[in-house]
Amino acid sequence: xxxxxxxxAGFINGHFWVVGEMGALFRGDADATQWQAMGPEEDVNxxxxxxxxxxxxxxTAEFGRLLRSRDNGLxxxxxxxxxxxxxxxxxxxxxxxAVGNQGQAFITNNSGDSWEQLPQFTPDHLFDISVRRGMWVxxxxxxxxxxxxxxxxxxxxxxxxxxxxxxHNRLLKTADGLVIIGHQLGLLGQDNLxxxxxxxxx
Length: 202
Fold this sequence. Notes:
20 strands; four-stranded antiparallel β-sheet; globular; mainly beta
């Protein structure tokens, strides 16, 4: 049994994975019927689990902790990138970016073997990051939404029509574009946010 909060789920390397508070880490089979605890005995909260390069699995955690497994969760290595909680991570090829609280962001160009901190482009917490068709996008608290085609370069504030100043904690890549999830739910267009369901102004 697990009494804590589960924070993130994903389907990686033919398995379902779930992470949460107090170092909770569970792996399920492809049907999500058989589950086993795979915890690396870390007494920290795990915020997200994502796929890396060549079968790597990554976990972002509080206190700047970043965990990596190269053997499908059997063993893990851990490193600290700053002191703020890391919330999410994404890779495209050998380039990866991890984001977290207080606008912290880190980049790797060698599949995660080493990381460098990016210049801060927002003081707001960043909750998720995604990349689609060469466009890197991150979102977070107080309407924070930034994008770039060069993750090591300048991140530009993105203010599509309809986006408010609330929190958004998830970006979901789809065939039609990026879906933003949080206080608002909708599909991000070039210059607007198509809200779901349609809202009626009273």
